[in-house]
Amino acid sequence: MEKAKNLSIFGDYLRQRLIDKKMSLRTLAKKTGMDPSNLSKIERGVAYPPQKEENLQKLATALELDQESTRHFFDLAAQVNGMLPDDLDDIKQNEAIPMLLRTIQNRRLTYDQTIELTKLIAQENNWQGRVIE
Q1: Per CATH, is 2-87 categorized as 1.10.10.10?
Q2: Which helix (H) or strand (E) element contains residue 8?
């Protein structure tokens, strides 16, 4: 069930970007050199997104995604494919990360709560009023 949900989330994201750009799947296929029937399956959530960075980048470029949207696009694809995004490989070295992720899971933080936590962590030298060194 979780796999189907993830496939659907990626497909929905792709579909919304197509709508935003007023672009058809056939146009996207022409711009990327990808098979339109495969793109349709991805959009409908019945096929996995590409795993190769090169193909994801072709899609992001064709959809004219900005840097933040491209990162989100890649993150969703990695999630669906059961992979860690490439730019996070170094995070595996931090022994506290599993503890952080388990805390988020155990507290059952919602998506919005997790975003708020991310914003707090991202604040330069500030974590609930305490200086981070």
Answers
A1: no
A2: helix 2-20
